[in-house]
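On clarity, I found the account of how folds are encoded harder to follow than it need be. Since the whole study asks how a given chain folds, the encoding of that fold should be made plain. For illustration, here is how one protein appears when written out as sequence plus structure tokens:
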Amino acid sequence: MKKNRFLQNKTFVVFSILALLIILAAIFAPVVTGGVDPLKGSLVDALLPPSKEHIFGTDKMGRDIFTRVIYGARASLTATFGVVALIFLVGTVTGVISGYFGGIVDAVIMRIADMMLAFPGLVLALAVAGIMGASIKNAIIAIVVVSWTKYARLARSLVLKIRDRDYVSAAIVTGSKTPYMLLRYMLPNALPTLIITAATDVGSMMLELAAMSFLGFGAKPPAPEWGYMLNEGRACMQSAPWLMIFPGLAIFIVVVVFNMLGDSIRDILDPKSE
């Protein structure tokens, strides 16, 4: 029945196909780009406008922009999925533990979460990345450190809804161990809503990573990463606008596709719709 619900949702079908095409383009980047190296260029070909030879033009080092945009999908998508997966894992585990055990465990975890929420997310992420140093790995860690609280608080609230139910109390009385209780009752109750949240967060996490790289706290040269490419093109915005147009367009398209895909998954899996 659920399979039919996914297939019957036209928005899900269309945007899942588009998302799959984007992922395949990133995986098979050498094939899509015809084997052109995204890191090598010739100063003779620097800042060439879009043409038959270079459909997106070239950058100030003579590197092909189309090739760098396609390879940039690898870095951007890998980092984004990594961020979402880590936030999902850390937030879910801490939230379920906090909600189930309560008491001092709950108080400690939630006070740490409250401290994180007291600061603007991106500003705190920039501070963490600034302390650790500029790299895509450190940018991922910085965003995870800041963003896990959303999932923790959501998982905690979902666990609190069922913690005192009769069937949970009965399981405890019959001798069920804590790991079994967490895996059999608490986690399954929280997972559907958390998965929906993760699916809708892919676009926003990609924007945060791009912002980190744009501000110099993410990818380092000469890596082909969309946020860093925008930063590189900023100096030539008037003389060579294609340096910013195409990476910006790539971010826009991918964020819209994954946002719409996440929204369609939410519409299908949302318990309220049943």
The mean pLDDT is 88.
